[in-house]
Design goal:
single chain, alpha+beta, four-stranded mixed beta sheet, two-stranded antiparallel ribbon, 6 strands, elongated
Length: 91
């Protein structure tokens, strides 16, 4: 979804101030609800993902899906929306 910056001109005050005033646009920033450290290891042809903070484990078939699998597991266990979860691999 593309974002577009728009500045609006505020009408002059009743005191005769004729300068143009601009309002800076609101720019949403990335916010993270929770950050978790995960540990990964190769086991039986798949990736074992261990999340020590919530005492959970899950698996992923490919290395590229490890982060998504960990976030999904955390979201399921904690109830935090998946968009607010960040993971960091620590070996």
């Amino acid at each position: 979804m593309p974002s577009q910056t728009i500045c609006r001109r505020v009408p002059a005050s009743s005191f005769g101030d004729r300068r143009k005033r601009t309002i800076r646009p609101f720019v949403p920033r990335l916010t993270i609800g929770q950050s978790y450290d995960i540990e990964i290891s190769r086991e039986d042809g798949r990736w074992l993902i261990r999340i020590p903070e919530i005492d959970a484990t899950t698996y992923a078939m490919r290395r590229t899906t490890v982060g998504a699998a960990a976030r999904e597991c955390i979201a399921t266990r904690t109830g935090i929306p998946i968009g607010y979860i960040a993971v960091r691999v620590s070996n």
